[in-house]
Design a protein that fits this description.
With 194 residues, this protein is α/β, with parallel strands linked by helices. It is built from four helices and eleven strands. It is 27% helix and 23% strand. It catalyses: (6S)-5-formyl-5,6,7,8-tetrahydrofolate + ATP = (6R)-5,10-methenyltetrahydrofolate + ADP + phosphate.
C-alpha cells in the first residue's frame, strides 16, 4: 500500500469515528478546547489568526476564535478560490459570512486578504509527533508553502478530537508538521512556539 493509500484508509477510519460522536460530545469537546487553549496560545499584539467555520462533524472553533479576538487577535477565515488556492479573508465583528465554495463559509470578496501568523488547521487524523492527514486536496499544504515563500512562518495548530489520533501518520516530503495540537483533552505544544 502506498503512503497515499494508507493516508486515505486512515482518513476514512478517523472521520467515521469523528462522525460517530454525538452532537453533544462535539459541542462539549469544542468548548473544552477554549478552556485549554483560549489563554494559552501566545498572541503578541496584532497577531492574525486563521480559524474556520466548521463543516460536517468538525470541532467548532468559533468560541475559541471569539476568545482570541477578545485577547487582541485579528481573525480571518480560509476561502477556497479554486482546487488549488486558499486565501485568508479578514473576519470583522458583525461582517456577514457567505458560502464560498467547497462546502465552506467565509467573508465575501470585499474582505481584506491577510497573511495569518497562526493557523487553526482542521484535519482528519494526527499523530503525537505532529504529522497530520488533511482532507486529501492539499489546500493547506499549498497555502502554507505560499506563506513561507513570502517569508512568513505561520504557527500551525491542529484542531481535532481525541478519536482522530493515530499511532503514526505516513509522511511524504510535501507534508508540513504541526507546531501544536488542540483536542478536547488538552493543548499540546510539539515545537515550542516563539
Amino acid at each position: 500500500m502506498t503512503p497515499k493509500e494508507r493516508k486515505a484508509a486512515i482518513r476514512n477510519e478517523r472521520l467515521a469515528l469523528r462522525d460517530a460522536m454525538t452532537p453533544e460530545a462535539r459541542i462539549e469537546g469544542s468548548l473544552a478546547m477554549v478552556e485549554h487553549a483560549g489563554d494559552a496560545i501566545a498572541l503578541p499584539p496584532g497577531t492574525v489568526v486563521s480559524g474556520f467555520w466548521p463543516i460536517r462533524s468538525e470541532a467548532d472553533v468559533r468560541p475559541l476564535m471569539a476568545r482570541l479576538r477578545a485577547r487582541g487577535a485579528r481573525l480571518c477565515l480560509p476561502v477556497v478560490l479554486d482546487r488549488e488556492t486558499i486565501v485568508f479573508r479578514e473576519l470583522l465583528p458583525g461582517a456577514p459570512v457567505v458560502k464560498v465554495g467547497f462546502g465552506t463559509t467565509g467573508p465575501g470578496p470585499e474582505a481584506a486578504v491577510l497573511d495569518p501568523d497562526i493557523l487553526l488547521v482542521p484535519l482528519s487524523a494526527f499523530d503525537r509527533s505532529g504529522h497530520r492527514i488533511g482532507y486529501g486536496a492539499g489546500h493547506y499544504d499549498r497555502a502554507i508553502d505560499r506563506l513561507r515563500a513570502k517569508g512568513r512562518a505561520p504557527k500551525l495548530i491542529g484542531i481535532a478530537f481525541d478519536c482522530q489520533e493515530v499511532a503514526s501518520v505516513p509522511s511524504e516530503p510535501h507534508d508540513v508538521a504541526l507546531d501544536a495540537i488542540l483536542t478536547e483533552s488538552g493543548f499540546r505544544v510539539l515545537n515550542p512556539v516563539s
